[in-house]
Amino acid sequence: MREPVREPVISFQNVSKSYAFYKQISGIKNFAFNLHRSLASIRNAQYEALRDISFDVYKGENFGIIGHNGAGKSTALGLIAGVLEPTRGRVVVRGRISPLLALGAGFHQELTGRENIILNGVLMGLTRREIMTKVDEIIDFAELGEFIDSPIRVYSRGMLARLGFAVVASLDPEILLIDEILGVGDIRFQKKCQEKMLNFKESGVTLLLVTHSIASIAKLCDRVLWIEDHVVKMIGDPYEIAEQYCKAAGVEVDLGTPTQGTLSTTSL
Ligand SMILES: Nc1ncnc2c1ncn2[C@@H]1O[C@H](COP(=O)(O)OP(=O)(O)OP(=O)(O)O)[C@@H](O)[C@H]1O
Ligand SMILES: [Mg+2]
Fold first, then answer.
1. 0.90 cut: is pTM over it?
2. 145-171: per-residue pLDDT in tens?
3. Ligand 2 centroid vs 91 CA: distance in angstroms?
4. N or C end of the chain, less CB within 10 A?
């Protein structure tokens, strides 16, 4: 019997992404003298954050993305979330996306945690009753105590991460994008998030996780993409890639044992 063909829920097909690059102007006199040429060079300068990237992610996978600062990881998640457009190539996404791309994104600074949750519910088109059920669930998960009724501008980074994760986790996601947010939560909250991610996995949610916590990537993910200098360096087994990545960086990290689905505080 032939195996059923697995359809990817995310597909990067030879994707490149360039940003406008702001070059430093060397000498205002020189700049003014060659004004036409200087302006053209500023306008045309491009920085390639991702170059010819291809990979597929399948339904229900926990897929990690690692790489040094500036490698292009957040750019990849931004392309999946649809907040960025590829310069070349195609990004195909099949499923409802719940992104947690930046701390406090999608929240209003002057509103309280509770009001922000309600606002998110309204924006998602939930009914009043659905919102009220979700609010309690989210507040329980976020464990912010009395701060839930303070404006979020007074929240610490960890508190914002708690609220952000609690909100996206409650959205009944099909594809969950998490960008380097868990690192700012305390270890108890990180563990709780990891457990939630593993529960999601059981219910078929696809997770894309960007983090510099290599041990969590190795523990939580089925496959890992390593982006180096804006191109795909390796893609495959999390332990193997995490090991190679640490070796290349000249850093020793305890990756634990290669058994997915088990959590311990040492894995954080
Ligand atoms: N809006 C932008 N305009 C210009 N350049 C940008 C922009 N956003 C990102 N870049 C550049 O693109 C490259 C990739 O950035 P990206 O944020 O994707 O990296 P990253 O892998 O997420 O890094 P980090 O680990 O530090 O979060 C970087 O060199 C960055 O300076
Ligand atoms: Mg980033």
1. no
2. 999 999 999 999 999 999 999 998 887
3. 19
4. N
